[in-house]
Design a protein that fits this description.
two-stranded antiparallel ribbon, binds adenosine-5'-triphosphate, globular, nine-stranded mixed sheet, about 350 residues, about 20% strand, binds magnesium ion, 14 helices, Rossmann fold
């Protein structure tokens, strides 16, 4: 496994260009302090840190002085000061409930297109600074929901969007521009414009899938108003690559790290993250639905909202919310139609 890790590290540094101080792009956001803002950390040190995979204050704040000293080619005393400064600037620690509530006001919601499904998710669809996971069998609607969100994120806030762009990390080659056109035309939008605001990348393996997150971070810092990141599918590559006996622990560890990276990105840049996940049969489940999500607890515990999708009566889709931190477990029904996700009387 050590070899594997090295390959990842190497390719990460290759992709990284050293950057100047960059601003937080998106409208109305406060500027987040950057590495360069830390006393004692000059452009040379920033380049070295970035080459070592450290891009933000959090990365620096968790280092120890000897490690930072070596990484950035600086003395230990200076390294200690820099770490302390980073911790101070980051305001690590507790915030009171009111401050927490204020922070939650920054959150955007993105409508799914179906009022029923939006209500299941608390009223307004999926939210930024959170990971929403949809898991279900083939054809259950995971990709359709992804495409619908990629269109809706572009809507103005009062219409259920976040006036932002979407990033679509496609691991299975199932992104369909024609389908996006149908959704866009369904809401009377210019389909070409809508497609231009969806930045699609095909991820060829799990390493590539992981690397693309850095790319997204760079795009946000370069000013792309990205509000939604889709990973369709989250687990397919991991599942295919770590299929052997005895590989499960490694797979889970990498998935775990990936989920943490996703959450960090969601929080840092105020993005909604929507991931899809397959199900596998669970022979232990004799009654009820004999399926469970790939990645199990690791993915489940890291997702803020989890929806289980399945086909229902008369071509409808049933969505069930599972283990939400603030909403009741509940079920609803919606339809996938040519021009969008629609409601069904329930
Ligand atoms: N234009 C359309 N009009 C109506 N329904 C459609 C249309 N396109 C796709 N669908 C429905 O969506 C289904 C496919 O759903 P989707 O691609 O979201 O599945 P998925 O959950 O992503 O499956 P997989 O695990 O294979 O990726 C089709 O079987 C069909 O029922
Ligand atoms: Mg799909």
């Amino acid at each position: 496994m050590a070899d594997d890790e090295e390959v990842i590290e190497d390719s990460e540094t290759e992709v990284k260009k050293s950057k100047k101080k960059s601003k937080d792009s998106a409208s109305g956001e406060k500027e987040t302090p950057q590495l360069i803002d830390i006393p004692g950390i000059g452009p040379g040190a920033v380049a070295k840190l970035e080459a070592a995979g450290i891009f933000d204050l959090m990365g620096l704040a968790v280092l120890t002085p000897p490690i930072l000293a070596e990484m950035a080619g600086m003395g230990e005393a200076a390294a200690r000061k820099a770490i302390q400064a980073a911790r101070k600037m980051m305001d690590l620690g507790f915030s009171d409930g009111l401050a927490f509530a204020e922070k939650r006001k920054e959150i955007f919601n993105i409508t799914t297109g179906s009022k029923n499904l939006d209500n299941l998710l608390g009223g307004k669809g999926i939210e930024t600074k959170a990971i929403t996971e949809a898991f279900g069998a083939y054809g259950s609607g995971k990709t359709q929901l992804a495409l619908s969100l990629a269109v809706n994120v572009q809507l103005p806030v009062e219409k259920g969007g976040a006036e932002g762009k979407a990033v679509y990390i496609d691991t299975e080659g199932t992104f369909r521009p024609e389908r996006v056109r149908q959704f866009a035309e369904g809401m009377g939008a210019n389909a070409d414009k809508v497609l231009k605001n969806i930045l699609v990348a095909r991820a060829f393996n799990s390493d590539h899938q992981i690397l693309l997150l850095e790319k997204v971070s760079e795009m946000v810092k370069d000013g792309e108003p990205i509000r939604l990141m889709i990973i369709d599918s989250l687990t397919a590559h991991f599942r295919a690559e770590y299929s052997g006996r005895g590989m499960l622990a490694d797979r889970q560890q990498r998935l775990n790290r990936y989920m943490h990276q996703l959450m960090k990105l969601a929080e840092q840049h105020n993005l909604a993250v929507y991931v899809t996940n397959q199900v596998m049969s669970d022979p232990a489940q004799m009654f009820g639905d004999p399926t469970k999500a790939v990645g199990g607890n690791i993915v489940g515990h890291s997702s803020t909202y989890r929806i289980y999708l399945r086909r229902g009566k008369k071509d409808s889709r049933v969505a069930k919310l599972i283990d939400s931190p603030n909403l009741p477990d509940n079920e609803t029904v919606f339809m996938i139609e040519t021009d969008g996700l629609k409601d069904v009387e329930i």
